[in-house]
Design a protein that fits this description.
Elements: H1 4-34, H2 39-46, H3 50-66, H4 78-99, H5 108-131, H6 141-145, H7 147-163, H8 173-176, H9 178-213
Helix pairs in contact: 1-2, 1-3, 1-5, 3-4, 3-5, 4-5, 4-9
Length: 214
């Protein structure tokens, strides 16, 4: 975690994620204000998306890993890196399977969209594979990692009820109704959990191979 290569890779990811988030914030807030709504309304809207929240977390975690010094802080812990890997992979998968092509984007928005949904997920996953310490995860960790997406589900439903803006089609309560929207949320949370278990499995296999190779 403290090698020059890992810090350089983390710095690159932090820059890509942060730039993608900043540009998306600028695009969304500018559009909201052009429609007569406030800057704060636009800011709340853009940061209500799980994609933006997760990419912002990636930027912060990667920036922490890029700094020289002690690599054992919370942001650089193996559990934190694995959790963020799960979150950003789900961002990429849900986009590819359910969301790609639903909106017609042009110009800079296309590049930003690719950065948020494709480039950052791939880069951070590769970072976890190459540089995260292995063999320290437990089978309980995937349950802990569910806290963030579960809280997001609650937040998104409250946000939608208060603003009548439902951010994702699979969570659109007026169209789907609460039973189906909650069912979709349950399936997505199950995907988070299954991917978490897969990460722990891979972590343990990787650690055993490293020990046998030594």
């Amino acid at each position: 975690m403290s090698t020059s290569a890992s810090r350089l890779a983390a710095a690159l990811i932090a820059c890509v994620a942060a730039l993608s988030v900043v540009l998306r914030v600028w695009i969304v807030v500018s559009g909201v204000m052009a429609g007569g709504r406030s800057f704060l309304d636009g800011l709340v809207l853009v940061f209500s998306y799980f994609t933006i929240q997760t990419n912002a977390i990636v930027a912060v975690v990667a920036a922490a890993c890029a700094l020289p010094g002690r690599p054992d802080g919370f942001l650089a812990r193996p559990q934190t890196l694995a959790a963020v890997t799960v979150y950003i992979v789900i961002v990429g998968v849900i986009y590819a399977v359910l969301l790609a092509g639903l909106r017609q984007l042009t110009g800079l928005a296309v590049i930003v969209d690719i950065g948020l949904h494709r480039v950052v997920p791939v880069l951070f996953t590769l970072y976890w594979l190459a540089f995260a310490p292995k063999g320290r995860l437990t089978w309980r960790d995937p349950l802990v990692w569910l806290i963030f997406p579960a809280l997001y589900v609650v937040y998104s439903l409250i946000y939608g009820a208060l603003t009548s803006r439902y951010l994702y089609p699979f969570a659109n309560v007026p169209v789907l109704g609460y039973p189906r929207a909650l069912g979709n949320a349950g399936l997505i949370l199950l995907a988070f959990y299954i991917l978490g278990l897969a990460i722990v499995t891979l972590d343990r296999i990787w650690a055993r191979k490293s020990l046998s190779g030594a």
